[in-house]
Amino acid sequence: MSELKDHFAKLVAHLEWADQRVLASLRAAPHAPAKALEIYAHILGSEQVWVSRLYGMPPRLAVWPNLGLDECERVAAENAGQLKKIVEAITGDALQRGITYRNSAGDQFTSTLEDILTHVMMHGSYHRGQVASLIRAAGDTPSPTDYIFFARGAPAATRQG
User: Fold this and answer.
1) Taking a C-beta distance cutoff of 8 angstroms, is the pair 5, 115 a contact?
2) CB of 79 within 8 A of CB of 48?
3) pTM of the entire predicted model
């Protein structure tokens, strides 16, 4: 159990690091299209919705919220803090515990804590790649957010030409 808890703690640390890097990329990209901020806000809105589900509370944000960069910074910090608390509280067979919730369409599902945490991490990674692609297509340089760069603590190789 301790190994899985440590694994999720590291994934949450990556999520926090990656969300901060996307925010920095958006602030530094003068040509970033509005769609890039819309997708970043979606990452954060989705994180917040899942955290709310884990606490059994109604979400404060929509899955696709309309946020500015300063709001994104605040929400990203709140999400990371809440996810850290959730992971820190994992004991025994908590990762296999079923959590029942309704999705944004109102359909009811039950998923394990392990599956929900895994989804949150993978969902953000998927969309961070979209944001990076949009920033790059606009002529700016996004910060890499790949997990291996986080784990190595070394900068990413850059594409030349």
Assistant:
1) no
2) yes
3) 0.92
**Smallest Cα–Cα separation from 82: which of 49, 111, 119?**
49
Of 95, 79, 81, 75, whose CA–CA distance to 6 is shortest?
95
pLDDT digits (tens, 9 = 90+) for 145-157: 999 999 998 666 5
**Tokens found for residue 133:** 């692609």
- The domains located in the chain, with CATH, are 2-152 (1.20.120.450)
Tell me the backbone φ, ψ of residue 100, rounded to 5 degrees: -95, 135
Contact present, 45 and 2 (Cβ < 8 Å): no
Comparing C-alpha atoms, which of 62, 74, 68 is closest to residue 34? 68
Q: In 3D, which of 135, 110, 145, 106 has the Cα closest to residue 38?
A: 135
| CA pair distance 124, 106, nearest whole angstrom | 22
- DSSP, collapsed to helix, strand or coil, labels residue 108 as strand
Give the tens place of pLDDT for each residue, 24-51: 999 999 999 999 999 999 999 999 999 9
The alpha carbon torsion through 110, 111, 112, 118 (nearest 10 deg) reads -160
Tokens of 37: 């901020």
Residues 6 or more apart whose CB falls under 8 angstroms from that of 64 comprise 38, 41, 42, 45
